[in-house]
TrEMBL record:
The chain crosses the membrane at residues 62-80, 92-113, 119-138, 150-169, 181-201. Belongs to the ERD2 family. Keywords: Endoplasmic reticulum, ER-Golgi transport, Membrane, Protein transport, Receptor, Transmembrane, Transmembrane helix, Transport. This is Er lumen protein-retaining receptor.
Length: 214
């Protein structure tokens, strides 16, 4: 079901992706961006949107799915190939496997059924909730944070907040809407962004450059 919160969240998500792509292409650098986070997002979208090949979900959903898939893979390509020398691998130290394996285990526990597509969808929901974690760790190690990178994370946090409002709206607007899995892991994800947002607002109000405590 479409509503103002869902649509606004989708477009804010698009804005976050355009911010990161613009930074990489204009600056010809991926400094300050976590390759591990971008790879995790690529995994999230690949496992979630395999239904592109099996199910028609409308033009709106199809276009967004294609964009998320293409942009996430393209960002990983840019960071691994043309601009790999600008990638800050020394600070991007959080091992993705520590997020992937628990997500697989939890997906097998919480999946609604054991159809492969359902398991992969559940896995993608769980993994997305923590995919930003390597990026936060990198920013903690970096000291002062570039405005463009901070704006990217804030937009992602805003997108998740709008999606929570979307779920609340649907809870009251749709008689049989129940989606406890996305609520739980969506709240976890929003909690991670909330911590970042606190330091973002604090730095803005104090007129200081944003930095995260180590």
């Amino acid at each position: 079901m479409y509503n103002i919160f869902r649509v606004s969240g989708d477009f804010l998500h698009l804005v976050s992706i355009f911010i990161i792509l613009t930074k990489i292409i204009r600056q010809r650098s991926c400094y300050g961006i976590s390759l591990r986070t971008q790879e995790l997002y690529a995994i999230v979208f690949i496992t979630r949107y395999l239904d592109l090949f099996t199910t028609w979900t409308g033009l709106y959903n199809t276009l967004f799915k294609i964009f998320y898939l293409a942009s996430s893979i393209y960002i990983v390509y840019l960071m691994r190939k043309p601009y790999k020398l600008t990638y800050d691998h020394r600070r991007d130290v959080f091992r993705s496997i520590f997020l992937i394996i628990p997500s697989v285990v939890l997906a097998l526990i919480f999946t609604a059924n054991y159809h492969p597509m359902e398991i992969l969808w559940t896995f993608s929901i769980i993994l997305e909730s923590v995919a930003i974690f390597p990026q936060i760790i990198l920013l903690q190690q970096s000291g002062e944070i570039e405005n463009v990178t901070a704006n990217y994370v804030v937009c992602l946090g805003g997108y998740r907040t709008l999606y929570i409002l979307n779920w609340i709206y649907r809870l009251f607007a749709e008689k049989h809407y129940r989606a406890w899995l996305v609520w739980i892991f969506g709240l976890i994800q929003t909690g991670i962004y909330s911590d970042f947002a606190y330091y973002f607002v604090k730095a803005y109000l104090e007129g200081k450059k944003l930095s995260l405590p180590k």
